[in-house]
Amino acid sequence: MAPITEVEGRRVALSNLDKVLYPATGFTKGEVLHYYASVADVLLPHLRDRPLSFLRYPDGADGERFFVKNVPPGTPEWVTTAEVPRSAGAARMVLVQDLPSLMWAANLVTEFHTPQWVAEAPGEADRLVLDLDPGAPATVVDCCRVALWLRERLAGDGITAYAKTSGSKGLHLLAAVRGASGERTSEYAKGLAVEAEKAMPELVLHRMTRSLRAGKVFVDWSQNAARKTTAAPYTLRARRVPTVSAPVTWEEVAGCEGAGGLEFRAEDVAGRVREFGDPMAAVLDASGAAELP
C-alpha cells in the first residue's frame, strides 16, 4: 500500500519513491516529487485554471509514454476538474490549482501540458506561443537567433515576448494576448513564422515538412490552435536526463554560445528562481496582454 502524506490538510498517496525514472543519472521518483514541491510557487500560477494534459511515463523516461487528457480513474474528489468542449463532445479534465493537487499529479509521473486558454473561456486565447525546434545540425544557438528576431517583430506589434527552454533541443516564446480565438492567434503566429522565413531563409522554416528541417529552425505556430497544448513552464521532461522547460532571461538568450548553453536540469532550477525569480511571471499578468493587430 502506498504511503500517505498530508499536504496542506489533504491526504496524498505517494508510491515507489525509490524507483529510478531517469536511468542516466539515477534520478528517482522521490526526487521528481521533491522537485515539483520545490518549484510549486512559480509553477502553479502557470497551471492554474488551465485544463491539463498529462504526458505520463510511469516506468521512467526510457519506458512507455502516453497522454492522459480525461480525469484519471481514482482521482481524489478534492482535485478540481472542469468540463471543456472537445471536437467529439465535452470532456472533463483536471485543473491543478494548489500544492496537494500538484503532488497528487506529480505522483502519476507527468509532464504538464497546458492549452493557451483557461477553463472559463475555452478556445479564447490568452497566450500566444511559438515553438522553435532546431533540425540538426542546427542547435539552440540558432533558435536564439530566431527568438531575438521574433522578439523585435512582436514588439513592433506591441506584444512583449518571454522565452523558456523547451526542455529538449529548442526554445518556446510566450506572450500574453487578449480578444482573439485560437484560430485567429494561429493565423497571426503563422504569419510571423512566414515573415521570419523570408527574413532568414537560410535558417528558418515555417512548414511542418520534416524532410526540409535539416540545419533550420522550424517555427511551429500550430500550438496556438485551441485543441493543442504546450509543455508548461517548469515542467520536467521525459528525456535522457531530468531536464526542465525553464524560463530564461533575454540576456541569457542573447549570450547563448553553445548547444548545451541553455540546458537546465531539475537540480538547477531552485537556484535560478532565487536569482531571477520567475522570468516569465509577467505573461500571467492580464493587464499586460496585447490585442493582436
UniProtKB/TrEMBL annotation:
Domain of life per record: Bacteria
Keyword check for Metal-binding: no
Domain DNA ligase D polymerase residues, every copy: 28-280
Keyword field: Ligase
UniProt cross-references to InterPro entries, sorted A to Z: LigD_pol_dom (IPR014145), MtLigD_Pol-like (IPR033649), NHEJ_LigD (IPR052171)
Keyword Ligase: yes
An example Gene Ontology molecular-function term: ligase activity
Protein name (Swiss-Prot/TrEMBL): Non-homologous end-joining DNA ligase
Organism: Streptomyces similanensis
Gene that encodes the chain: ligD_2
